[in-house]
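Entry type: protein chain
Record version: 2
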Amino acid sequence: MPFKTLAPPGRRRAAAAVHDEHLASDPVAGAHLAPRDDLDFAPAVLDAAHIGDIEGSLGTISMHDRSPRRGWWPRLVTLAAIMGPGLIVMTGDNDAGGVQTYTQAGQVYGTSLLWVLVGLFVVLFVAQEMVTRLGAVTGVGHARLIKERFGRFWNLFSVGDLFLLNFLTLLTEFIGVRFAMAYFGVPKSVSVPAAAVMLFGFAATGRFRRWERFMLLMVLASLVVIPCLLLAHPSAGPILHGLVPGVQGGVTGSAILVIVAVVGTTVAPWQLFFQQSNIVDKRITPRWLNYERTETLLGAILTTLAAGAMIAFAAFALNHTKAFGPAAAYLDSGWFNDAIRTTIGPAAGALAAIMLLVAAVLGAGAVSLSTSYAFGDTFNKKHSLHRSLRSAPLFYGAYGAQIVLACAVVLVGSDHLLGTLTQYVQVLAGILLPSAILFLVLLCNDTEVLGPWVNNTWQNVIAYTIIAVLVVLSMILVISTLFPSIDAVVLTEALFAAAGIIGGLGALAALRARGRRRSSGEARHRRAEIRQLERATWRMPPLHLLTQPTMSTGRRVGLLVLRGYLVASALLVAAKVFGSFIH
């Protein structure tokens, strides 16, 4: 544990409140807390409900369990109890916007964009693996860490982006419900409110396990994509050819827009906030971190395969048909369901609508909870699915308010507006993602936060490469939009070449800085001290004990420039959306 310092009186009173509340509500689980007169060593968790047994949908693990797992069966049983956050966040990634983005990519470009998913699998797992460490080791949510380590200014920037993007994403989920149920003749005045009531009902029971079982049922139902693909009669040749980089019809501004949208729907900022907070809410500690990593890897594999299946489904069903070839304009998910019915048959159309409905409900449940978790973290309010409506009114109030507002917008919005919005929300997510991952990487290199769990060199290389690629993709989008006549191929090559040069110079600067740190005796002593810590039991101390990080001028300027660019890019996307409505 880092150096002990005296907590400010206000912080000690807050720690005392958590301590006493948990002892009163669960004396057995609270017995491991620090003594009342030594609150500087109390756990870092901000809500007492985040301490206790792991009550998973498929099993329970005692918080005092220290027994080794020998053999495949005990390990499998433990993995089953841990399962939840990783599978839900990954499968929820293939939400209603994802269904529209993937099927549009398949209808217009065939299987030629499958290679994008291979690279995104790496991005997806690397990002979410860092989140699993932060959640299990720190015991607090992503928004809270940004606030404590970077200050309220950057917290408001990050959470402000999250709240806006999450609300827009939630709109796309209810749009998906509207189009899916419309296929079966159910009006949106019935389907959208019914979905909202169901989502709130399962979340507000005060039982984490009940909510998780509902979400895992949706994960299981998402496998409907398999019969959808089989009905399209896929063949191996085009699928294997699609794994080789290229774009059917050549690289164009429209193709780049679709690729950015695929990136945005495959790895979205809400996923970072959701999984970290959900791990904390499920009470997963470093003792069980490898099981959570395994679950996250399984979720990433399942999500990538499902996304590829959606692209292939649309490609084999619509890409080569005369009626629905590349010349046909993809309007929205409702158009897609009707096109599948016309091309393959009513059974396939019904399965496509069910696929969209499941994706929308799963995505809505995860995205809305991500917002509520971040709300509790930012404003220091109780935020746990273990709590009832009475004990966490603001947490559930935020959850219900966003659902009600999103439903209202979808009920009064036109189909043209709703269909266009779904596509551009994914593009916006792709543009804002680099800054979200940047804060994630900075936190995962903070020894005060992660101690012996900080990133190693190869993890940082991959993470910063991901950030660079995402920034370049967003720049291509912005420049192509401002200057439509520019050659997209030349632009892509030039920007990636420039990024490579800048990245090489940055790597050299980092190596020189690392060499200077190694020459420092204090730095060597600090690294040796961290290496000696026991990873299985080390957890972040209370936030008031951590030494505040120093923000260098260069890092501050870099963050401001990045944020300014991303805000400008987001405004450009908004202008493009409104422009499409005018014309």
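Comment: The chain has a mean pLDDT of 81.
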